[in-house]
Amino acid sequence: MVRSVTSVIERPYVLLSCSMSIDGYLDAATEKRLLLSNDDDFDRVDAVRAQCDAILVGARTVRRDNPRLLVRSQARRDERVARGMRPSPIKVTVTSRAQLNPGADFFTTGDTEKIVYCSSGAVELARDRLGEVATVVDGGQPVDLRKLTQDLHSRGVGRLMVEGGGTMHTQFLTNDLADELHLVVAPFFVGDSRARRFVSDGMFPWNPARRAKLAEVRQIGDVVLLRYALSPRFGTH
Ligand SMILES: NC(=O)c1ccc[n+]([C@@H]2O[C@H](COP(=O)([O-])OP(=O)(O)OC[C@H]3O[C@@H](n4cnc5c(N)ncnc54)[C@H](OP(=O)(O)O)[C@@H]3O)[C@@H](O)[C@H]2O)c1
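# NAP complex -> structure
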């Protein structure tokens, strides 16, 4: 008897999180960063972060927003430490050009590992520039997100939160690598097509013939959270 062996390569449970304007923008096109959410929702996001092993953002978000990507609540950090984890999740970013500042808050804050998945062509530059503050991984040309998730899984990441920007959300969704989406809608319009939208063009697995499952609608002050189940793994991690 010939037995076929199919190797199942595992990846983490992937949760996408984003807030957008009523007209679907993630930010304004102006110099000043746009705050879309409110304090209660930022606290909800903090609770979701605290449940994850790693948080990923694209390199443009690191440059534009200079995020710290840490768990803010001391109680949640303590709870993680009590469970034998670092106070905040591993930080992950993706770049093709390695034009990232080692002094950015992404790299300098938090007692946690930082990983940069870099396109093959810029890996050497990335190691020179960021090797002291992060682990630089050759992610392919361009970085292959499926392999990235598999690599994170092999590093012990069971639950990955993707916090933007639009380029990252688009790739996770079009590659069918997302299990859950948290979409927060802020009660105003941006009305400027130079600004970045939640997603750009692509072939999305969810379309009029294959609708995503709306799992929850929650009002949080003046914003609304829409929680979508995007895979059969929803809720299992
Ligand atoms: N409202 C929200 O929830 C929220 C959250 C996060 C961000 N934002 C906003 O979103 C905007 C940024 O979004 P964005 O779409 O412009 O950028 P992004 O997704 O943050 O980052 C895009 C960058 O990531 C790198 N990259 C992406 N895919 C890659 C691949 N497969 N291989 C190699 N490199 C890859 C490239 O970096 P290099 O350019 O370095 O090569 C690319 O320019 C900002 O305005 C930010 O404020 C909003």
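# post-check
The radius of gyration is 18 Å.
Residues 39-50 form the longest helix (12 residues).
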